[in-house]
Design a protein that fits this description.
heterodimer; A: about 120 residues; mainly beta; seven-stranded mixed β-sheet; four-stranded antiparallel β-sheet; 11 strands; globular; B: about 110 residues; six-stranded mixed β-sheet; about 45% strand
């Protein structure tokens, strides 16, 4: 069965950096695009970034463009999100999600909490 | 990248039907048949209930149905059950090669 397990969350000061990981299993990771989606405490879902199956194309929400970098290592079945210049408004649970056709999120991880605070 | 517009809350009694609307623009809902709906219970990850406007994944009850007209999509839940009480989010692919979610709708089963 498909499993997505996020890790790397924690508390970081404003301006700091953090790298999230998402370990995938139960499907052929190298053939599917992957997303990061976040949810601030008590708020709705916000799409963050997408990377195509081969890593060649990456897309970002305006709110994180230039600060976050999505990447993947298909040899390790792992998705990453490098978060730089973090702001208090980046505080959220970050989910990784697998894409399926047509353009929807079919499997989600359990999420990892990132808190940006001094 | 403005969020899609959903009502903040809807409610219904067991057995009744409710509809949640999701309004976007010609740059998202109006351009593609790539609308999906997600159910989220407190403290849990979202679960897809509808994809491609009106398709149900395997295992999702046929009480859930979706539709779209112009820039507005809708999720209908018939025969409301207590377990349907949750937050619901719509999502659409956009002409900017990005995705956008609605603000979410809290469903209360009275």
């Amino acid at each position: 069965q498909v499993q997505l397990v996020e890790s790397g969350g924690g508390v970081v000061q404003p301006g700091g950096s953090l790298r999230l990981s998402c370990a995938a299993s139960g499907f052929i990771f190298s053939t599917y695009g992957m997303h990061w989606v976040r949810q601030a405490p008590g708020k709705g879902l916000e799409w963050v970034a997408f990377i195509r199956f081969n890593g060649n194309d990456k897309f970002y929400a305006d709110s994180v463009k230039g600060r976050f970098i999505i990447s993947r290592d298909n040899s390790k079945n792992t998705l990453y999100l490098q978060m730089n210049s973090l702001r208090p408004e980046d505080t959220a649970v970050y989910y990784c999600a697998k894409i399926d056709d047509p353009y929807y999120f079919d499997y989600w991880g359990q999420g990892t909490l990132v808190t940006v605070s001094s | 990248q403005s969020a899609l517009t959903q009502p903040a809350s809807v409610s219904g009694s067991p057995g009744q039907s409710i509809t949640i609307s999701c309004t976007g623009t010609s740059s998202d809902i109006g351009s593609y048949a790539y609308v999906s709906w997600y159910q989220q219970h407190p403290g849990k990850a979202p679960k897809v209930m509808i994809y491609g406007v009106s398709n149900r994944p395997s295992g999702v009850s046929n009480r859930f149905s979706g539709s779209k007209s112009g820039n507005t999509a809708s999720l209908t839940i018939s025969g409301l059950q207590a377990e349907d009480e949750a937050d619901y989010y719509c999502s659409s692919y956009t002409t900017s090669s990005t995705w956008v979610f609605g603000g979410g709708t809290e469903l209360t089963v009275l």
